[in-house]
Specification:
Elements (H helix, E strand, L loop, with lengths): L1 E5 L2 E8 L2 E11 L6 E5 L12 H19 L3 E9 L8 H15 L7
Parallel strand pairs: 4-5
Antiparallel strand pairs: 1-2, 2-3, 3-5
């Protein structure tokens, strides 16, 4: 997996053979409200069944809740970005969200407003 920051966005991507997923999130402290969701333009020329955005968001929030419970953090997601032609299943976004928080916390780079 690859992790990076782009301004206020925390980002992770994972490519495993024909499957590829990218997630970017903006995080803050406080209570979780419905995040703003941005479907980013397709990357490359591959075409897959469309991701179910509702399931993707639920998976991201579940992954962040798991990370909060494991790491003793209290983060919430304000914005989610994903690539329109990334691959299913949407459940992988829970894993990506959790690992993203774990990575940036371990690196000491998880400062949020």
């Amino acid at each position: 997996m690859q992790y990076w920051r782009a301004d206020e966005w925390f980002c992770v991507s994972r490519v495993t053979g024909p499957r590829h997923n990218m997630l970017r999130m903006r995080l803050s402290g406080g209570s979780q409200a419905a995040p703003t969701v941005e479907r980013l333009p397709p990357a490359g020329s591959c075409a897959h069944a469309a991701l179910d955005e509702h399931s993707l968001v639920a998976s991201v929030l579940h992954g962040v809740a798991d990370a909060n419970a494991q790491l003793g953090t209290s983060l919430c997601v304000t914005h989610i970005g994903y690539v329109a032609n990334d691959t299913k299943p949407e459940a992988v976004y829970a894993f990506l969200a959790s690992k993203l928080i774990e990575h940036f916390r371990t690196a000491g780079e998880l400062q949020v407003d």
